[in-house]
Amino acid sequence: MTGRTFQLELSLLTHAGRKRSRNEDCVAVDTRHWQENMDQPHCFVLPLGRPHCLLVADGLGGHPAGDTASRLAAEYLGQWIRSRDRVEKETLERELRALNRYLFDRASERDQRGMGCTIAGIIIDPQNMLIFNVGDAVVFRKNSGYLSQLSVSDSPAVSFGEPDRSLDRSVVTQCLGGTLHFQEIEPHIREERLVVDRCYLIATDGLTAALDLETIEGLLKEPQYDPANRMLHAALASGAPDNLSLILMRIAAAPSTKENLNRLP
Prior knowledge:
By secondary structure, this protein is of the alpha+beta class. The chain has helices spanning 66-82, 89-109, 205-210, 213-220, 227-237, and strands at 6-15, 25-29, 32-34, 42-47, 52-59, 116-124, 129-134, 138-143, 146-149, 158-159, 162-163, 176-177, 188-192, 199-203, 244-253. The protein is 24% helix and 31% strand. The two termini are 29 Å apart. Mean pLDDT is 90; it is low at 258-265.
């Protein structure tokens, strides 16, 4: 991919859903994060001249301060990515472990023991891309109209993006923070090649709780009709029992004109 320049076409949203009074999800791009309900997605273009961090974080249900945990995780990685020229797999793994310790320590300081979140995202620079997750938030790659799960779900209720309705979705086998006694984590990280026109979906489990994989694939097959917006309204129409957040990312060739596209809404 040497010598080529790229940009990221992004569409993101977060929403409390139909049943929750508070949104404990957080969606973030670099140092900018969102937690307020969105009735429409934010859509923008980001030039790929340096590393970027795209993520969704989901505060643990039934634990204190889930919204604080997801926001702190987003802020931590957003500040960290600002100082990086390039990100290697080992560096990201080390930082996710440090984030786990950071959330545990902050929970102890605030007397909010048990505060924690799950997380999934993409670190991308001009040469490389890393897919990461801890918990049951997911990352998919779109292939010929179908979704392939790239993340590893730390939940007995989710396998290959298809939830097992007979199992408790609230159970996760690891998360960031979220414990009364400190526990190390094993982050899931995989490398991915940059390919023009390739599309990715990052989402909290609230999306896959509301919509099955086949429905999501169908909504993605006509990108001209704003699939992020259609996913939100389909999830709400189905009852949306949990907070839901998503980021759609498409890798595109950068335009030849020197436009300044690095402005978030």
